[in-house]
Design a protein that fits this description.
Length: 275
């Protein structure tokens, strides 16, 4: 008996960060966003969703995990306004039922990302966490001002690593769509398979282009070799003709201007017949 496919929700692309100010006097750099989008892989390290960047250890506590970040991308903001032209980081999220319920009630509608500027031994930025919050001031401009005047960062204890950065909280509008999860297949596996299909198509197209270029280059190379061989043969023939011409010219130069006549014998010019 076949198991009924499980259905999970996957959010549509949602903006979770914008280049600019962070909560500890640093800037969320454009290249960080680009590096995170390029390198993010849940199998290497999956960024989980938490409350207020607080990470509890009890599975039923108030600060449990509320989902995962499935994938990332970057886009420049095109809408008119203060953020136009800035680079934004977008994510697709796999929520838990609790996060869906909170979102349905209009709770925890702002998000803030936790960035490790030099993740592991890569030396590049990586997304290590995503927090949801009700109050943008707690992770926004008011907290930014407070941190700037504080001797020690009040958010330091919430970081996975002391060098990590929390972005200023921005409003996040979540919309979900159902994704079937077949038996023995995780949602991440399904998403990765879909992305891999596109990558495989792109790789095949590039392989076809490379093969075509190689065939054209090979054909042109053969033609050049043939032309070079024919040119060499023509040059040799030309040299032989030039040599023969020079020899003939020398021979003719040694000949007298007029041909000599046979000497006269004193006899008649009539032909005689011996009968």
């Amino acid at each position: 008996m076949d198991k009924k496919p499980k259905k999970k929700l996957l959010s549509k692309w949602v903006r979770i960060g914008v280049e600019g100010a962070t909560c500890d006097r640093r800037n969320l750099e454009r290249q960080w966003l680009e590096q995170m989008a390029a390198a993010y892989d849940p199998k290497v390290y999956g960024a989980r969703i938490n409350l207020e960047h607080l990470k509890g250890i009890l599975p039923d506590g108030p600060f449990q995990r509320y989902g995962d970040v499935a994938m990332l991308k970057t886009e420049e903001i095109a809408e008119e306004g203060l953020l136009k032209g800035k680079l934004a980081l977008y994510a697709r999220l796999v929520p838990t039922d609790q996060l869906i319920e909170m979102n349905r009630k209009g709770q925890k509608v702002y998000s803030s990302i936790e960035v490790d500027p030099k993740f592991a031994d890569t030396g590049k930025a990586y997304l290590v966490g995503l927090a949801v919050t009700d109050d943008p001031a707690s992770l926004g401009t008011e907290m930014l001002s407070f941190c700037a005047g504080a001797q020690s960062n009040p958010l330091a204890s919430r970081k996975r690593s002391p060098d990590n950065v929390f972005s200023v909280a921005i409003e996040t509008e979540l919309e979900f769509e159902e994704v079937e999860e077949r038996g023995g297949e995780t949602l991440f596996t399904r998403i990765r398979a879909l992305l891999s299909k596109k990558q495989n198509r792109d790789d095949q197209q590039m392989a076809d282009v490379h093969q075509a270029v190689e065939e054209v280059a090979s054909f042109c190379g053969e033609q050049v070799d043939q032309i070079r061989s024919e040119l060499t043969e023509l040059q040799m023939q030309h040299q032989q003709l030039q040599t023969d011409y020079s020899a003939l010219k020398t021979l003719l130069a040694k000949q007298p201007a007029t041909l000599p006549r046979q000497p006269a014998t004193g006899g008649g010019t009539d032909l005689k017949t011996d009968c």
